[in-house]
Write a structure and sequence with these properties.
three-stranded antiparallel β-sheet, about 90 residues, alpha+beta
Length: about 90
């Protein structure tokens, strides 16, 4: 298309259809599992597990739960916490 050609309504509609198709492919073929990318902070973990701050600290020190420490904030991978709960389930 040359700079002097007019863009028609049909051209815009075709572009929209192509863009939507491309976005759908990105979201359906994405190798990233969004749940795995979710991290919880200490307050959320304490609420989820119904534990105190001291208990959470002890669990970190014993290596019972995985975490990352960035700046002054602890981050806990949600999927790993849920896996830990399932592994430690007693029937």
């Amino acid at each position: 298309m040359s700079p002097n050609q007019l863009v028609t309504k049909e051209d815009i509609n075709n572009l929209e259809i192509r863009l939507i198709s491309m976005m759908e492919n990105i979201t359906t073929n994405s190798p990233i599992d969004l749940e795995q990318e979710t991290y919880l902070r200490s307050k959320e973990i304490r609420k989820l597990l119904s534990i105190s701050d001291n208990t959470l600290r002890a669990m970190r020190e014993k290596g019972e739960i995985p975490y990352s420490f960035i700046g002054s904030i602890y981050y806990y991978p949600k999927i790993k916490i849920l896996e830990t709960l399932e592994i430690n389930t007693i029937n």
